[in-house]
Design brief:
single chain, mainly alpha
Length: 99
C-alpha cells in the first residue's frame, strides 16, 4: 500500500489519512490535492501520477470535485483543448441540489 505523504494529511481531514492509498484511492487523492494542495504538494502529485493521468482525471466525471476556477487553471496548464473540456463542463453544470 502506497501511503500519502505525511505533509498531505491536512488535505484529508474527514478520513484517516494513514489509510488513504495512492493507487487504490487515486482519483480521491488527485482531486483533493489539485483543489487544496500547496505548490509543493502539487509538484509531488504531478511527479507521482504524471500529467497524462491528471488529464485523464480532468476529463472524467471525477473532476466534479474541483471548483470551476481550479478546473480551468488545470485545463490551461495541461493544455486541454476547449473541445475536450466542453464535454466535461456540460456535466459540471448539472447540480444535484436545485438550490
Amino acid at each position: 500500500m502506497a501511503k500519502i505523504p505525511k505533509e498531505w494529511h491536512k488535505y484529508f481531514w474527514e478520513v484517516r489519512p494513514e489509510k488513504v492509498d495512492l493507487e487504490k484511492n487515486a482519483w480521491y487523492v488527485v482531486g483533493r490535492v489539485l483543489e487544496w494542495g500547496n505548490l509543493e504538494a502539487v509538484r509531488k502529485l504531478r511527479r507521482y501520477y504524471g500529467d497524462a493521468r491528471l488529464k485523464e482525471f480532468l476529463l472524467s466525471t471525477n473532476s466534479r470535485v474541483l471548483d470551476n476556477k481550479t478546473m480551468r487553471f488545470w485545463q490551461v496548464v495541461l493544455k486541454l483543448s476547449p473541445k475536450e473540456c466542453k464535454r466535461i463542463s456540460s456535466i459540471r453544470k448539472h447540480r444535484v441540489w436545485p438550490y
